Amino acid sequence: MSTRVYTLPVEQTRWQVAGGGETVFTWEYDEGRDKLLNLYEKGKSRQWNSRERIDWSTPVDLDNPIGGPEAYVPIYGSDIWEKMGQQDRNQLFHHMASWQFSQFLHGEQGALICASKIVQTVPDIDSKFYAATQVMDEARHVETYSRFLHEKLELAYPINQHLKALLDDVVGDSRWDMTYLGMQVLIEGLALAAFGLIRDIAENPLARAVNAYVMEDEARHVAFGRLALRDFYPQLTEKERNEREEFCVEACYLMRDRFLAEELWQNLGLPVDECLGFVRNSEAQLQFRSLLFTRIVPTLKDVGLFGSKVRRAFADMEVLGYSDVDLDTVMADDERAAGEIDAARRQQVEDTIAVATA
Predict the structure, then answer these.
(1) Which of these, 12, 36, 168, 300, could form a disulfide with 126 (CB 3.0-4.6 Å)?
(2) From the CA atom positions of the chain, what is the Rg in Å?
(3) Residue 304, phi-psi category: left (phi > 0), alpha (psi -120 to 50), beta (remainder)
C-alpha cells in the first residue's frame, strides 16, 4: 500500500523489535493431538484467494464506507456530533472507517510475524503444521485490508499507540507460549469481535464480505491458541501462571483503550478531551467495549488463566459474564456467516447470467 494515503508520516509506524526465542526442531513426526491435526486439515482445505473470492468491483461510498448507521459513530449523540453539519459527519464516517481498517491491517501484519515466529519456536510438530497454514492466512489478510484501504478508502492511519505497545511486548518476548497468548488469544480475540460488529451492521457488501471472510480464518486461529495453551498451562508453576495473568490484565486494558481512537479526533481537529470523555462514558460505547471481550474472557477461562487478578480486571470492565460463552458455537456461527455471503454472491451471479441469456 502506498504511503501517500497515510494521514500522518508513515515513519511513525515503522519500528524494529528485538524478538528473542530459540529455533526449535523436533524429530517426533508421528505424534500429534487429534484436535490440532483436525484444525490443520481445516486450515489447508479452507485457503482462499482474495482476488477471486471477493468482488472488488463493488463500489464504496466514502461518505459512509461501511454503510453503517449514525449510531455506530463513537461520538454519536454528543454535543460535538449535534453541532456537526452533514459534510463534517461524512468526513468523520470516512476517517473512522479508515482508522478502523488501518488498525485491522497493522494488527494482521503483527499476526503474520507472530505466526511465523510460532513455526520457529513452538516445540510440537502439530503446532508447527497448523501455524504454517496461519502464516498464509495472515499474509492474505494483510493483502486484503491493504487493498481495501488503498483502492476503496484512499486513506490510512498509522498504528495506534496501544496496539503498538502490545505488539512490542508480544513480538519481543522469547517464550513461545507468550506469542500464542498475546496474539492468538488476546489481539485476535478482540479483533474478531470488532470484525463481527462491522460484518453484522454493514450494508456495504464489500466491507461486510472482507470482514466475514477474515473472521472465518481468525476463528480457527483463536481455537489453535486455545488447544495449544490448554495443554501447556497446567504444567506451569503458580509463579509462571501469575506472570501470564498479569500480562493478560495489562493487555486487556491496553486493547480496551485502543478503541478510544485519540488520534482520529485529533487529526479531524475535534476537541480531543471532550471526545474522549464522551466515548469513555456513553452507554453505547461502554456496551461496545464490553462486547469486544466476548471471546477473550471464555478463552482465558478455558486455558486456565482465570485467577483472582484476571477476574477482578474483568469485573472492573464489566465483562466477567462472558466467561460462559460457548466458543465452539461462536466459531461455527462465523463459518456459517461467511458461507451465507458466498451463497448470496453465487446466486447473484446465477441471476445475472439468467437475465443475460433470457
Answers:
(1) 36
(2) 21
(3) left
Cβ pair 10, 3 in contact under 8 A: yes
Q: How many CB atoms lie within 10 A of CB 358?
A: 5
pLDDT digits (tens, 9 = 90+) for 233-252: 999 999 999 999 999 999 99
| 120 vs 127: CA distance, rounded Å | 10
Q: How far apart are CA 133 and CA 110, in angstroms?
A: 16
The per-residue pLDDT of the chain, averaged, comes to 88
Domain 3-8+32-357 CATH class label: mainly alpha
1 pLDDT more than 70: no
What are the boundaries of each domain within the chain? 3-8+32-357
Q: Are 197 and 289 in contact (CB under 8 A)?
A: no
pLDDT band at 342 (very low <50, low <70, confident <90, very high): confident
Q: How far is the C-alpha of 67 from the C-alpha of 88, rounded, in Å?
A: 16
Determine the Cα–Cα distance for residues 14 and 97; give it in Å rounded to an integer: 22
- Would you give the distance in Å from CA 133 to the centre of its chain? 18
The answer to whether 293 and 329 have CB atoms below 8 angstroms apart is no
The model's pTM is 0.87
Say what the pLDDT of residue 113 is.
93
How confident is the model over 148-195, as pLDDT tens digits? 999 999 999 999 998 998 898 898 888 999 999 999 899 988 888 889
Give the rounded percent of residues in the chain with a pLDDT score beyond 90.
56
